[in-house]
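call fold target=tRNA-specific 2-thiouridylase MnmA
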Amino acid sequence: MLPNGKEKDRLMLNSLDLPGRPEDTRVVVAMSGGVDSSVTAALLKHQGYDVIGVTMQLYDHGKAMHRVGACCAGTDIQDARRVAEHLGIPHYVLDYESRFKEAVIDRFAESYLAGETPVPCVTCNQTVKFEDLLEAAKEFGADCMATGHYISSKMVGNRRVLFRPSDEDRDQTYFLFATTQEQIDFLRFPLGGMSKPEARQLAHELGLVVADKKDSQDICFVPTGKYTDIIERLHPGAAEPGKIVHIDGTVLGDHKGIIHYTVGQRRGLGVSYGGGPLYVVKLDPEQKHVLVGPREALVTRRLKLRDVNWLGLQTFAEFPESGLEIYAKVRSTRPPKEALLYALPNGEFEVELLDGEEGVAPGQACVFYEGLAKEAQLWGGGWIDRTVTELAIPETIGVSAAE
């Protein structure tokens, strides 16, 4: 028996790869008040979808009102509300202040105190956005949740898969490596095939009040750009002084706390040794040492990972003993590079960077891709637990005074 009209509508997939007509499909759009999420909401509304805008309040509203470049706060909530009114869609503000502090800000501070270089945007996506907000979207009766991330997704076989976007300069896959398959199946990214200039132009054409709004800064909860202020406020007295030590064991000077330094840093060390430039190559929170050395001491060849999220089609049992060929990205601003991924018998994971990378630090993310091409598949990633540099650096360094 042939399907009737309603059954045909249900069986046909719309532009979001969901069955049914757009007007019968409810989409919750995560609206930060910026250009990208506003264009996402506008696009879906103009395509006829049943759109609901939802904004997360992550800060004290009164204090956030005059922050510039901080998303999900003060004026951004107002901007999201104004866009929703212009589009004629419902808009809700959900208070995730305490959850954000616990899941993102506190973890950020603890990671720095442990001598790491954290990536809070990944943690925010992993917890508040794609756990709490996603569950709220389901409570609104949504068929999916859309965001303004520049990332592509499409069906491959019987599951949804993430790919790098067409605009490589706006690629945000690095920040979504920890997304689970269940979350990927529910998420949609309408801007994956669009460039940022195209999104801004569309915002103008649609008459959105945020069309010329500047992008938010990376660490949205650090309004001054000085992250040490956040850490010292949460952990008074935690920035304990210590020694700046060369990797050969020579003490070169004093510091006021390892949280003031990051791996790869060259400027502001205030010490010299041997005539050549010095770089921070390691932070030792136990001994309170900032370890410095020549540039070649920054070159990392091997990474030990924790909390790996694997999204590739292969099972770990299918990994060759010689390592699975991947492309690895160790910073959001760097391109993926050739690497080998090892799934060890003890359940641990290691990555061998074939050409090496400089300035890689524990706490950063190592993200996996199938290739270098535009729209290459995202294979997941993990958090860097330890690094093995080309120039061997002992785990513990005995110190001596400089002559």
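return ok
The radius of gyration is 23 Å. The chain has three domains: 16-205, 239-296+395-401, 299-389.
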